[in-house]
User: Which sequence fits this backbone?
């Protein structure tokens, strides 16, 4: 497993008329967490796209526990839970500045060929980087 964290400030435009972060923004916050993880691993998405690989989201499952509001600082915790073959499996949690769980969920992301737009297996260059985090030794 590999875990990454990023902090994000809630912005005005992310809130609804009640002053609460609109539920649709949590998908974006999750994406920020996944992008941060890829950068930390040394495989930013823009570099993988140069290798003809794209990452479509296949599934998002979010469970809401508490509201976030304007002025909150959120911590997005992202964990790559399985060694990828044809899909990436992420567990994601968001906490507020009081370390209260705001929401949690799972995101599944596939690999596709950028030019042919068909599913592919995880590229060797990607596996070479993430495999050590899944060694049983």
Assistant:
């Amino acid at each position: 497993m590999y875990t990454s964290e990023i902090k994000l400030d809630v912005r005005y435009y992310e809130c609804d008329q009640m002053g609460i972060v609109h539920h649709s923004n949590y998908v974006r916050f999750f994406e920020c967490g996944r992008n941060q993880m890829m950068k930390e691993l040394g495989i930013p998405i823009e570099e993988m796209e140069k290798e003809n690989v794209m990452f479509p989201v296949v599934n998002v499952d979010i469970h809401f526990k508490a509201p976030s509001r304007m002025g909150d600082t959120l911590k997005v915790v992202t964990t790559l839970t399985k060694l990828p073959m044809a899909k990436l499996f992420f567990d994601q949690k968001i906490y507020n500045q009081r370390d209260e769980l705001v929401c949690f969920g799972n995101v599944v992301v596939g690999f596709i060929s950028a030019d042919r737009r068909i599913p592919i297996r995880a590229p060797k260059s990607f596996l070479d980087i993430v495999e050590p985090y899944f060694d049983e030794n």
